[in-house]
Recover the amino acids of this structure.
């Protein structure tokens, strides 16, 4: 870890301003990802802005029947909220599939969205990685890429986004509220980027923009399901995951961002079968060798998840 | 010289009058550990404020160090010293361990060559851990890089034999195998595995004059003390090594590393205490690991299930440093009857991190092949896999004809089958469903050697009647403190609360330490002997003391019970006797040595594993639902700590079957999973119903107490039982461990499922 300066923010606008003014500043909330990355010298912010005490920990009903989730709401609290459990079960299932109990107690809603990839080469500072050191190359391309992306990847990066929660939020059409000089609201789907030639730029946020809330519109009709496949039963990154809510679908652990499966949704909306839907979505999927199984896995998993959601929808 | 027959008579442990032997006593140090008051090596408070050392590992697997630029590190805030190969103080050269008892030297930065990725190449000491860490990042190493030879992928049974070792052949394996009507011939692979001790290796060291005190996290006190003394070229008596609490060893800490050497050297250099710890990432390469294996198992049988031929050839790799061989075939030698046998090992020297002992070295990998081969053979024969083991149960060691010291394998199998409900197993795979899950049962045999090594111990009785046990033994989290206390209390006929146990200190009578499943039998037997000597001394005092009710004897009739010495109704407390005669206390030593004729018997511990798994037919995910182990391992000292060790071993078996493995990138010569979020050991949610049962047993040939060890028995065969259950659940045999969902999925798809 390298020396850094530290301040504790007292209000969101002030935190955003401080981030804009300090070169190489980072917000720290739960710290479940950033502290590890700093200890391993993967992240080396010059200045930390602690947003841990900002009053952004409320879950409020919105006028249209949705919810506004403060950025500092912990994953544990969000998954335990009665309204979330009743209206957005896919979000609850996704959250409890992520990390461990201890991590979820510390991890926040905003921080969860901004966590960084689990690609092993990203974590080893002695290896090339375009995400960590732009221009150094991608070690995973021809390396141990069992956990790598099959959708939307580039020659520069085949890392995946690790969040389970974000996959559920993407099919719930969540909006992300951001405070800065020009406060704005970003559709969650537009928050994360594909790697392209700049895999080190992971989101559409600029320096000095602070996520303050995630807003959920009312839930879509129909059943909701989150299915995550992993090497062990808890505290393991996904090999692939599927979120289904009504006619919407998204995948986790297969792309640089939560992968909203618009092609599959269109096939389902047009009366196609789940198998046809997943086939359409995976037509452009590419494997690098060891991650080929993820394509097979999604082909098998999606129809089951869709059927489970449908039967739940019928039951409800 | 001691003979095995000398251990046959009765003694206080066998009589067990206070019923302390076997009692499920809670671990003495448990409350200290969970309350954070047990000081581990890195937490020990030294006599003056310490400095902190941080090691810098190599980022290449093979090559020459041309230069190390320490200038920036030395100029960084708080830095007290920085070293590399070019300026480290003189140390003894690295030696090669020729036998178990020989201490190893661990010179830091001995050569200008790098022989594996992650080898320590530089070291920085500063006033705080933060400053040392920051300064270590400023060290620049210039290498002449050479292409590493790191790929372990033998074709066929090629490879050199370990030095001085040839294959063991009985009968004519090749001919018998060729003629066998039913055969299994298959190859299994296991990956490198890492111990993943919760506590990384760490040392706190300081000097007073020419005397060095080191608190280290090591399994073997005396060997580490002597190894460090040799490295530093000082007399061993000038090294006081302590290791009071150890956060897991699993074999990793039966070796010792640069943290120990560098803490001692740096503390001498800067004249203040120094603490050095490995990081989790550094543990993966910088300490030993279980090397990968290729295991070739061949079994031939007649249709009635009698094995006519058996072979297990283990191929494995060594680093350029060290000479440990993962002997994955040894355990199979005493296991099953077969007149024609071929077993042996092949080694490959590669530019890989140092191979070493980990969680039942040999059994931990070899059973993953051999016990699955038995399952495959059973299926081909149409015989229940458990019955196949019983059919081939030998009367004597099938390799050399020696009698077994004790062997209750069949009883383990039968008792386990009964308790587990083995009769409910459907032999055709994939027939039992639970929703989207397909269920299966599997079993395997457990076997692990048992040995007794030389050891000493001392017992002191004070004027309060309190017995203090002293021994240079270690407790690596297994319950050694507690079971030594139970042995002492039962031997002396005093309550457990009247016993103190002091271990983990090189100034105490030496014991080999923890490892190889010999700890309890070895250290415990020495304690027992010390106790018997103290009883004798107390009797002599009592019968010679006119003030004692026992005066005049007869000595042979003195009993020890509840802290009282008595000859029928003449009695007094030990405390009263000692207060009168030895107010300053009385200390005696005891010693155990292996019996001269112990080699006449084949001595092992045994068990049977039973596992139920569920497999998600969509995703290939495997989840263990139930696990039962039934074991026969001599007299059990403490059913609670023994059960914990056995179930812990079984959980490691689940890890070795399903998740564990250091993924290896040959381009860099390094493992890419370097923390416990990426190297997956089982978590709580992976383990369903789990139990271990211990059969009554007393092995009179093993040692005077009739005990053996359970430290490594639990893992032996456990992973194979999981693999066999997977096959029974879904018809997929994965012979390339770990059995991850992608591999099961490929198997399911190949079956058209």
């Amino acid at each position: 870890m390298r020396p850094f300066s530290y301040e504790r923010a007292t209000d969101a606008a002030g935190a955003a301003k401080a981030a804009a003014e300090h070169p190489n500043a980072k917000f720290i909330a739960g710290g479940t990802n950033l502290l590890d990355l700093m200890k391993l010298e993967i992240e080396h912010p010059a200045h930390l802005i602690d947003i841990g005490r900002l009053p952004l920990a409320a879950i409020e009903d919105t006028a249209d029947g949705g919810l506004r989730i403060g950025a500092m709401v912990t994953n544990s609290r969000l998954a335990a909220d009665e309204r979330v459990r009743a209206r957005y079960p896919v979000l609850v299932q996704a959250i409890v599939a992520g990390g461990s109990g201890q991590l979820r107690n510390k991890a926040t809603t905003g921080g969860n969205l901004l966590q960084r990839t689990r690609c092993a080469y990203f974590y080893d500072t002695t290896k090339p990685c375009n995400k960590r050191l732009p221009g150094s190359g991608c070690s995973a391309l021809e390396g141990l890429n069992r956990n790598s992306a099959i959708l939307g990847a580039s020659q520069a990066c085949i890392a995946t986004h690790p969040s389970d929660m974000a996959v559920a939020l993407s099919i719930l059409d969540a909006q992300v509220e951001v405070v800065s000089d020009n406060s704005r609201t970003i559709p969650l789907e537009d928050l994360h980027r594909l790697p392209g030639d700049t895999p080190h730029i992971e989101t559409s946020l600029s320096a000095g923009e602070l996520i303050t809330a995630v807003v959920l519109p009312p839930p879509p009709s129909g059943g909701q399901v989150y299915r995550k496949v992993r090497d062990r039963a808890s505290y393991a990154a996904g090999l692939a995951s599927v979120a289904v809510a009504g006619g919407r679908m998204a995948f986790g652990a297969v792309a640089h961002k939560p992968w909203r499966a618009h092609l599959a949704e269109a096939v389902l909306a047009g009366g196609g079968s789940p198998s046809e839907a997943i086939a359409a979505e995976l037509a452009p999927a590419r494997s690098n060798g060891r991650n080929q199984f993820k394509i097979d896995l999604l082909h098998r998993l999606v129809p089951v998840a869709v059927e489970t959601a449908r039967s739940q929808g019928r039951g409800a | 010289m001691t003979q095995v027959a000398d251990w046959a008579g009765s003694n206080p442990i066998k009589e067990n009058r206070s019923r302390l032997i076997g009692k499920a006593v809670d671990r003495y140090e448990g409350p200290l550990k969970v309350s954070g008051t047990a000081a581990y090596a890195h937490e020990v408070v030294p006599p003056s404020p310490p400095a902190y050392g941080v090691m810098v590992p190599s980022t290449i697997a093979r090559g020459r160090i041309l230069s190390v630029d320490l200038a920036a590190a030395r100029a960084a805030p708080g830095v007290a010293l920085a070293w590399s190969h070019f300026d480290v103080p003189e140390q003894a050269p690295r030696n090669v361990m020729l036998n178990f008892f020989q201490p190893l030297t661990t010179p830091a930065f001995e050569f200008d060559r790098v022989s594996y990725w992650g080898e320590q190449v530089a070291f920085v000491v500063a006033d705080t851990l933060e400053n040392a860490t920051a300064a270590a990042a400023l060290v620049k190493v210039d290498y002449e890089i050479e292409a590493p030879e790191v790929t372990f992928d033998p074709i066929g049974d090629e490879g050199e034999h370990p030095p001085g070792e040839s294959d063991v052949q009985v009968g004519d394996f090749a001919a018998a195998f060729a003629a066998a009507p039913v055969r299994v011939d298959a190859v299994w692979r296991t990956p490198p595995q890492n111990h993943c001790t919760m506590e990384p290796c760490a040392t706190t060291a300081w000097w007073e004059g020419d005397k060095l005190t080191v608190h280290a996290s090591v399994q073997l006190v005396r060997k580490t003390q002597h190894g460090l003394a040799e490295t530093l070229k000082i007399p061993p008596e000038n090294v006081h090594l302590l290791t009071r609490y150890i956060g897991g060893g699993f074999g990793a800490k039966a070796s010792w590393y640069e943290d120990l050497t560098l803490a001692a050297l740096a503390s001498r250099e800067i004249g203040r205490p120094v603490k050095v710890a490995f990081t989790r990432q550094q543990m993966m390469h910088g300490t030993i690991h279980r090397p990968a294996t290729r295991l070739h198992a061949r079994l031939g049988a007649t249709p009635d299930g009698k094995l006519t031929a058996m072979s297990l050839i283990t191929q494995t790799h060594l680093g350029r440093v060290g000479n440990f061989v993962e002997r994955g075939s040894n355990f199979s030698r005493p296991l099953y009857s077969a007149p024609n046998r071929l077993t042996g090992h092949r080694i490959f020297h590669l530019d890989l991190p140092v191979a070493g002992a980990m969680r039942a070295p040999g059994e931990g990998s070899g059973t993953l092949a051999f016990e699955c081969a038995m399952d495959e053979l059973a299926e081909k024969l149409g015989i229940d896999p458990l019955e196949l083991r019983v059919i081939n149960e030998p009367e004597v060691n099938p390799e050399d004809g020696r009698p077994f010291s004790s062997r209750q394998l069949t009883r383990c199998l039968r008792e386990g089958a009964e308790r587990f409900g083995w009769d409910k197993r459907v032999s055709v795979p994939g027939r039992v469903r639970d929703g989207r899950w397909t269920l299966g049962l599997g079993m395997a045999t457990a076997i692990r050697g048992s040995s007794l090594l030389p050891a000493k111990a001392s017992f002191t009785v004070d004027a309060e009647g309190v017995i203090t046990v002293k021994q240079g033994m270690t407790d690596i989290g297994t319950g050694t403190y507690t079971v030594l206390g139970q042995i002492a209390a039962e031997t002396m006929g005093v309550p457990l609360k009247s016993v103190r146990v002091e271990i983990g200190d090189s100034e105490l009578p030496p014991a080999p330490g923890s490892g190889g499943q010999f700890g309890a039998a070895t250290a415990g037997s020495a304690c027992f002997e010390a106790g018997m000597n103290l009883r004798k001394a107390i009797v002599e005092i009592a019968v010679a003391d006119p003030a004692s009710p026992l005066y005049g004897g007869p000595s042979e009739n003195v009993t020890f019970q509840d802290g009282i010495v008595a000859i029928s109704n003449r009695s007094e407390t030990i405390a009263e006797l000692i207060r009168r005669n030895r107010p300053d206390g009385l200390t005696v030593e005891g010693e155990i040595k292996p019996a001269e004729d112990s080699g006449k018997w084949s001595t092992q511990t045994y068990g049977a594993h039973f596992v139920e798994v569920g497999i998600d037919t969509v995703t290939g995910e495997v989840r263990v639902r139930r696990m039962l182990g039934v074991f026969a391992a001599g007299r059990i000292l403490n059913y609670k700590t023994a059960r914990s060790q056995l179930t812990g071993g079984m959980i490691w078996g689940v890890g070795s079957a399903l998740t564990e493995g250091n993924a290896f990138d040959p381009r860099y010569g390094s493992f890419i999973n370097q923390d416990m979020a990426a190297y997956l050991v089982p978590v709580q949610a992976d383990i369903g119903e789990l139990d271990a049962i211990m059969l009554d047993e007393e092995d009179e040939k093993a040692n005077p107490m009739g005990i053996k060890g359970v430290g490594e028995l639990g893992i032996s065969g456990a992973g194979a039982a999981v693999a066999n259950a997977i096959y029974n659940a879904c018809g997929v045999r994965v012979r390339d461990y770990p059995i991850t969902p992608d591999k099961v999925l490929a198997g399911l798809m190949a079956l058209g499922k």
